[in-house]
Amino acid sequence: MQINRRNFLKFSAVTGSALAFGGLGFNLKPAVAKAELSKLRDAKETTSVCCYCSVGCGLIVHTALGGKGRTVNVEGDPDHPISEGSLCAKGASVYQLAENENRVTKVLYRAPYGDKWEEKSWDWAIDRIARKVKEARDQTFVTTNAQGQVVNRTDGIAHVGSAALDTEECWYLQGLMRSLGLVYIEHQARLCHSSSVPSLAESFGRGAMTNHYNDLMNSDCILMMGGNPAECHPVSFKWIMKAKERGATLISVDPRFNRTSSKADIYAPMRSGTDIPFLGGMIKYILDNNLYFKDYVANYTNAAFLVNPKFGFDDGLFSGWDPEKNAYDKSTWTYQLDDKGVPKRDLSLKDKNCVFQLLRKHYDRYTLDRVSETTGTPKDKLLEVYKAYAATGKPDKSGTNTYAMGWTQHTIAVQLIRTMAMIQLLLGNVGNAGGGVNALRGEANVQGSTDSALLYHIIPAYNPAPRAVWPTLGDYNKANTPVSHDPKSANWWQNRPKYIASLLKAMYPDKTPEESYDYMPRLDVGQNCSWLVMFDHMLQGKFKGLFAWGMNPAVSGAHSNKTREAMTKLDWLVNVNIFQNETGSFWHGPGMDPAKVKTEVFMLPASVFYEKEGSITNSGRWAQWRYAGPEPLGESKPDGDMMVMLVKRLKELYQEEGGAFPDPVAGFTLDAVVTDGMFDPVKMAKLHNGYFLTDKKIGDVTYKAGTQVPSFALLQDDGSTACANWLYCGSFTEAGNQMARRDKTQTEMQANIGLFPNWAWAWPVNRRVLYNRASVDQQGKPYAPQKAVIKWEQGKWIGDVPDGPWAPSERHPFIMTSEGFGRLFGPGLVDGPFPEHYEPLECPFETQPFSSQLHNPTALHFSGPLEKRAVCDPRYPFVGTTYRVTEHWQTGVMTRWTPWLLECQPQMFAEIDPELAKLRGIANGEKVIVESMRGQVECVAIVTPRLKPYKVMGQSLHMVGVPWHYGWVHPKDGGDAANLLTPAVGDPNTGIPETKAFMVNIRKA
């Protein structure tokens, strides 16, 4: 008998066991349990999508029709094309999220300097929060900056969160915060994949995962580097194993021999923080052995572009370095242009100033000896990896990379991911089936929430946030709309004015786009409001209030002691979650005296994901609709309802009392997303898609007011269309909710590579493989006909939705870059057009082999008594790194309160190799203390040969690995946050913290 969830429950009933519900707080008698289970067949079934990682696995939720109307079962959806009914440990446990006696189900309040929680009503809490928000906003509102420029922003309130919300809620949340004037708006993406977006966008034009999870099966070689999909994205690994069954080579490169490594054909160890040398050596290997895809490189990348002759690189620094400003003048990082303003090209790739030759010159230093000396990877392993992966540079082959936070959390993270993007362009692995650079995101809706722009530097759909130097909408559009003089460049961002006008009409429907642009808060030139800066400013007392919406910054952010201390400087904190956590409870945590903490705290109880309706977007850009099963437990509420309640009360307060610049608050959209007084996710989804506000004739067709816009090509810049996010235009059309589709019908060509175009909906325009015009030659014939993505046949494209409708060769394939080509030379980043190796800001060496520049010269760092870094410090001789385990998720707020999962992984541990254990006299299972310059954590030692010492630059170097899912609130003695150890330093392009390589010591407790 197969023991799945349903059979287990039936088995429990037959044997009279109440174990199926034991530990969930129900204490049911066997007869009652049996009666409940008998209702399974007659229970209401709703489909949902798992709330954990970004794979997007399908769920079936069974809700009792009688009794208390609670969940009786949750299991995998066998019809779902990604998960096919399977779930990982976390997905299989989601039943215990809703049916859990430890959930917060009432509003809790902690008074300033108080030592206990008090229960409050929703009306009381919303009224008081609105009052605190208004007071803080009015007191800290800034109309003009020091230069006299209009900024209309609120400097005294900050917000973090939330990838835990549905996409519809995310959009409304960012709109609420921006209507209040906030610019300090951040969420999970800053800490997990913010470095993916600029690196992939600089390389290809968009910042998203290029392919999708099912497509992994189409690869001939999968490089699993910077991620551990077998443990962190377990259901995705079935498609990797499917590729292996078809003959693919699997490569694992990781500091640890992990579960992914155990299934790999090739495993190569590598010191954390040395990925660029490893990949730079591969670039050299490809170029030295002429293994690049020549036609693709010449015709579809900027390899042939001629660069400014004044561009140069010397001893770790590019031309234009200004040591006084710690920044580059990028005026030499330009192309040579012809008399029409089009970049000059040398298709022979021989000109010394062409990108191809500059690339060859740059990586000529990345020899096997230097790479091995730096990474600790044996030379034979380097060659084995290089040979296997470079073999995909043939027209009919494809290779892909799967990565996660092993790559993203470094001070060179953006450049690291760029290195892989460049390899994929050299090998012709972008746009094809089984190719691409595939960012495996760690949260179920971190893609949708990033699309919605819960980040300071962008507004929805990856448009730049307004800045003070762009006083009018016209100024904004002029500065941010690229111009191309090449008639074959689609230059898709030339449409930005249409997208911005439609976005502004979605936010402020009663105003013209020009008027509502004035309502948008504006950043100063160079102003950085990213996560690390936010908490540094908080520590300085610059904020009165903080929203922590579905997020746990007391654990998730680097240098957690600094974060926790910063929260003591707040006047108030609003914490929205489903369980108690370290952020809401910081005031009585380790080292805190409640009597000295002034912060007023509001704990708002949220619904569990399958208690509400809405969509989430997985990492492969599939937007999937979730339905509500049981009603929210107790007095918990959907997040969208909380927002609507707060918006209503704030509108009332400003109408009654006036205040600082009340117009954005008064005018922010409400009726368009509300039904019967509460948030309506269907209405919001329709607004997300966009609709016509007036009758509009486009071509020969007249669209009536209220009609859903069929595609973003029909959005207008005159205020006649409202669209909350142009990327989602097409997701909810007159034909209905495309995200809710469950049709697995495919053409034979689509089924051959598993596109599933009628299941859910993918942005943009339901395209499943980005840049797919690069998968065909200039006549529209697939390079790999046995696994074609698109092809030109009888005057039209068939297969996937093409990346632009034009006939072959009418447009260059990379339509989102202004020039239309994939970029090997990337002049838009702040730390160089080519990736270069620099050591982490905490490292065991004072020199490195590639240049005399030890660290990234542009890296984000801070000064002050708490900001210490260990470089070649004998007190901290070991390299620390953080990672995940399968059974827990992120900061553990949900999984540590889930009994099934906590039983599997009950306690913080430190993983070390046997030699280090012997050196420190530590036995397996003993209590140890891991410490850095910032703090310490007590752990259980796991001594394992999965880690081995590295021979690096003449030294024997050990690593210490710790999971980052734990915190002091629960369970008792389970351990505290790994981020107590990590430094508050970040990548210069995004500010993402460097939590994957830092220096520690370990000793017996």
Describe how the helices and strands are arranged.
Elements: H1 5-14, H2 30-38, E1 44-49, E2 58-63, E3 71-76, H3 95-98, E4 107-110, E5 118-120, H4 122-140, E6 141-144, E7 150-154, E8 157-160, H5 167-179, E9 185-186, H6 189-192, H7 196-204, E10 221-225, H8 229-232, H9 237-245, E11 249-254, H10 259-262, E12 266-269, H11 275-288, H12 294-300, E13 313-314, E14 317-318, E15 321-322, E16 327-328, H13 355-362, H14 368-375, H15 379-390, E17 399-403, H16 405-408, H17 413-426, E18 437-439, H18 446-451, E19 458-459, E20 463-464, H19 473-480, H20 496-507, H21 513-517, H22 531-539, E21 545-549, H23 553-556, H24 560-567, E22 572-577, E23 600-605, E24 614-617, E25 622-626, H25 639-657, H26 663-667, E26 674-675, E27 678-679, H27 681-689, E28 691-692, E29 696-698, E30 701-703, E31 721-722, E32 732-733, E33 736-737, H28 748-753, E34 761-762, E35 790-793, E36 796-799, E37 878-883, H29 899-904, E38 909-912, H30 914-920, E39 927-931, E40 936-943, E41 950-952, E42 955-957, E43 959-963, E44 998-1004
Parallel strand pairs: 8-9, 8-21, 10-11, 10-17, 11-12, 17-18, 21-22, 22-23, 37-43, 38-40
Antiparallel strand pairs: 1-2, 2-3, 4-5, 4-23, 6-7, 13-14, 15-16, 19-20, 24-25, 25-34, 26-27, 28-31, 29-30, 32-33, 35-36, 37-44, 39-40, 39-44, 41-42
Helix pairs in contact: 1-2, 4-25, 5-25, 5-27, 7-17, 11-14, 11-15, 11-17, 22-24
